[in-house]
Amino acid sequence: MALAEFDLIQRYFAKYAPQQAQNRLGIGDDCALLSLPVGHQLAVTTDTMVENVHFFADVDPTALGHKLLAVNLSDLAAMGAHPFAVTLSLTLPHTDEAWLQAFADGFIGLAKQQGVDLIGGDTTAGPLTLSVTAMGSLPQGGALLRSAAKVGDLIYVSGQVGNAGLGLKIKQGWACSEPDLPLKAMDKPHPRIAEGLALRGVAHACIDISDGLAADLGHILDRSEVGACLEWERVPLSAPVQEYIRLTGDWRMPLIAGDDYELCFTVPAKRGDLVPAGCYCIGVIQAEPGLRIRRAGREETIAAKGYEHFF
Amino acid sequence: MALAEFDLIQRYFAKYAPQQAQNRLGIGDDCALLSLPVGHQLAVTTDTMVENVHFFADVDPTALGHKLLAVNLSDLAAMGAHPFAVTLSLTLPHTDEAWLQAFADGFIGLAKQQGVDLIGGDTTAGPLTLSVTAMGSLPQGGALLRSAAKVGDLIYVSGQVGNAGLGLKIKQGWACSEPDLPLKAMDKPHPRIAEGLALRGVAHACIDISDGLAADLGHILDRSEVGACLEWERVPLSAPVQEYIRLTGDWRMPLIAGDDYELCFTVPAKRGDLVPAGCYCIGVIQAEPGLRIRRAGREETIAAKGYEHFF
Predict the structure, then answer these.
(1) Taking CB atoms and an 8 Å limit, are A306 and B2 in contact across chains?
(2) CA of B160 to nearest chain A CA: how many angstroms apart?
């Protein structure tokens, strides 16, 4: 990390003091130093957002700062990890103080809310690119892995799906009678950290829904070498998503659209009553490979393909 | 991390199996899981490289892969940390298989040489931007901090300075009679990990020279609230750098030019014989603030300003 980088990061971000005692040394040396509780492992994830790929040039910078951190914390939530530290790499075409302050407000606002410290970073001139590495702790052997689903497990989601997908359609011109909820779901997703922690010792497999329910559940099925059947009537949908489906007939949208950042997880039936409130049981893990959905008395196969940013 | 990202990272990078037993789960779940030895802390650093800022479009991709990892490992070396894991975020304008393979060869070649595992990453379409977060371990309380220099400490560098700076001048047209060493110093810096480990319990303060000897030693002086005097005749210079100075009179270049990635560190005089072989004593820490250099019988002040990528 170089001199001007400190200046920039310090000006907008470093006024927020570390919240975690284990983060001993933050921005300003060659490295940050972190400690882990005894008997704990470190969970690490990284995600990058690029202008015109993940967001538009006119994005609200506060929402962007929030979302950049949220998508990374969501990966930690999906492992059942307790997030405590993040690094931030900013590549910026120019220095726009108002933009940076608004971006920092969104980023640090969520960080403070979740007790996460910004422990280091890097700023560079160049096309707008934002990269975060997030770190969390979890008890040794306690991670919720994609590979851990078992035949007979019940499948849950932590909240409604399709809201962020509808938000994107609204941005693209869809006339929605209640646009606020879908737009907020797209712009300011809520990472399900509390739910991930509550699922330690309860869930078998877990993933966060970034590419779409079908695609992300598909990752669990692939890794666990199992299949699944969903019940269409049990998939939680908001009123605006129900309206969209009624008007278009496109009932697959909430299964395929990404960016919801709800958790999808599997739980052995006998532990169903330990699932946190607000989660919905939507199906069951089966031995037969593939992903199926039962809807209006018929069962059909869903292609486990989501949105891909590349190729 | 999303599906296509795995495909890309897996195709070029994941054929290299983890080398460290503590890296339990690598690329392919929501997060990677790492363990730290008992009584150890985690050191974390992040650095980004952007086309046309840190490298030119015609850069040799193998050298670029090497350098991207090297500059991050160099930050760990400067703390005395033992590097064990890195994440890589690639933003690529298009998929050029030959380029990617050459880049991966350079990156993984150095990773294998240093026993470091690539534990996760992210690939996105966009302007060429490369971001690494590197993690290392070190005994609790054992980090070599910038703030730890004491009056009377001897100042050392781990090798010659100015070679990478001369390499850049050669790229810009300087006719050098021996260009190989300076160009290699610029393109394929060697992170001084072994030296950093050997300095645990020996050095007080330590930093890696990325912004130039004067600027980086300046960080130690600022943080430690001390000053320093260097002896010009003791600063180790290669033959081509000596030639450059003879022909141009620009003797400050090796003090100001960046990118050498040698370590600069301070050691109490009584531990001077514990300094690793190949390091050079170039001066002393003094109580009087500021950075001075003694040259040809005269002492003058050096501005502690290096290359800044931004503003």
Answers:
(1) yes
(2) 21
How many other C-beta atoms can be found within 10 angstroms of the C-beta atom of residue B99? Answer: 15
One-letter amino acid for residue B58 of the chain: D
Q: List Cβ neighbours of B298 (8 Å cut-off, separation of 6 or more).
A: none
Q: Are B29 and A79 a contacting pair at CB < 8 A?
A: yes
* Predicted pLDDT of residue A2: 42
Query: Amino acid identity of A280?
Result: Y
DSSP state for residue A30 in the 8-state scheme? S
- Find the radius of gyration of the CA atoms of chain A: 20
Question: Which chain A residues are within 8 Å of B47, Cβ to Cβ?
Answer: 1, 89, 122
End-to-end CA distance of chain A: 32
Test B126 with A51 for CB contact under 8 angstroms: yes
Residue count of chain A: 311
For residue A36, the chain B residue with the least C-alpha distance is B41
DSSP A61-129: HHHHHHHHHHHHHHHHHHHT-EEEEEEEEEEESS--HHHHHHHHHHHHHHHHHHT-EEEEEEEEESS-E
Q: Give the pLDDT confidence score for residue B1 in this predicted structure.
A: 40
**Whole-complex ipTM:** 0.84
Q: Is the pTM of this model over 0.80?
A: yes
Nearest chain B CA: its distance from A91 CA (Å): 8
Name the closest residue on chain A to residue B75, using Cα atoms. Answer: A30
Tens of pLDDT, residue by residue over A39-49, are 999 999 999 99
pLDDT tens-digit map of A139-185? 998 999 999 999 999 999 999 999 999 999 999 999 999 999 999 99
Q: Do B42 and A34 touch (CB under 8 A)?
A: yes
CB atoms within 10 A of CB A91: 27
Taking CB atoms and an 8 Å cutoff, what residues of chain A touch B35? 41-42, 140
The fraction of chain B above a pLDDT of 70, given in percent, is: 88
Is residue A211 classed as helix, strand or coil in its secondary structure?
coil
